[in-house]
Amino acid sequence: MSTTFTLDTSTSRANPTPAPMKRLTVPAIQRRKAEGKTAEPLVMLTAYTARQAQLLDPHCDMLLVGDSLGQVIYGLPSTLPVTLDMMIAHGAAVVRGSYHSLVLVDMPFGSYEASPAHAFASASRVMAETGCAAVKLEGGQAMSETIAFLTQRGIPVMAHVGLTPQAVNALGGYGARGKSQEEHAKIMDDARAVAQAGAFAIVLEGVMEDLAVAITDSLDIPVIGIGASAHCDGQVLVAEDMLGMFERTPRFVKRYENIADTISGAAERYATEVRNRSFPTADQVYRPKK
């Protein structure tokens, strides 16, 4: 038996509830790709809160506590200011709010690059304090030694190659990668290097479609695309982008809802009723029983 947490929506409190262990595991995710093919693509979305995790969990195979929370939750200009403490706090919330999906947590900028030992210290803290199943880190060949170091010590790693947001200053922006033959070859080498180092899966972001197809077909581990190709073994999006929480929609995002308008409209109706004193009504106040 394991302890998961059921969110009581009447009080917004997470209550621990004993339940059989049914979470997807790293080996289960790996087995979804057999003989180089994935029959049913893997579904991954970002999540940052317990309630969000609870809503997304039944529909996903993996929930990523992404460092994109820097922009989405905190209004920061990039992912670079995100701290390990921030990732741990949100990671723990998502684990509490989910039951089925494998939860993995992004390693923020500066928490793993200095050395494999530094990465292990950060990753082991993330695993211990959140209860997540794996971590994700950016970088290709340069991170292969670190990935091997972590996986050999019991920390599953999802790699991230192609467009790597933490390296946006070095890359010169967020444009698609792999347009030149040289860059195409480098990203291919990066993907192969992290797979050989022991990564159980790869996020492949913002690359030309032919490169995404080639990488997916050449690796035995699942390749999760974002701005890559439907041919990938799975897809990931920032949930808030998919839900239409922001005005700007990246090219690789499809909006499935327009939640921003829903929230704004509800707030407008609430404000109107407060100002004209039509809220609260008798249904929302306490009066003596007759």
Query: Looking at the structure, what is the overall shape?
Result: globular
Query: How much β-strand is present in the residues?
Result: 15-25%
* Helical proportion, percent range: 25-40%
If strands are numbered along the chain, what order do they take across the biggest sheet? 5-6-7-8-9-10-11-12
In this structure, how is the largest beta sheet organized?
8 strands, parallel, barrel
End-to-end distance: 49 Å
- What's the alpha carbon Rg, rounded to whole Å? 21 Å
- Based on DSSP secondary structure assignment, what is the total number of beta strands? 12
Sheet/helix structural class: alpha/beta
| Mean of pLDDT | 91
SSE succession: EEHEEEHEHHEHEHEHHEHEEHH
Please report the number of helical segments. 11
Low-confidence stretches: none
Function: Catalyzes the reversible reaction in which hydroxymethyl group from 5,10-methylenetetrahydrofolate is transferred onto alpha-ketoisovalerate to form ketopantoate.
GO molecular function, one term: 3-methyl-2-oxobutanoate hydroxymethyltransferase activity
EC number: 2.1.2.11
Subunit structure: Homodecamer; pentamer of dimers.
Structure explained in plain terms:
This protein has 290 residues and is α/β, with parallel strands linked by helices. It is 37% helix and 19% strand. The chain contains eleven helices and twelve strands. Strands 5-6-7-8-9-10-11-12 form an eight-stranded parallel barrel, surrounded by five helices. Helix 6 (144-151) links the parallel strand 8 (134-138) and strand 9 (157-162). Helix 2 crosses helix 4 (84-97), helix 4 packs parallel to helix 5 and helix 8 packs parallel to helix 9 (209-218). The longest helix is centred in the middle third of the chain and has 17 residues, at 181-197. The model has no long low-confidence stretch (mean pLDDT 91).
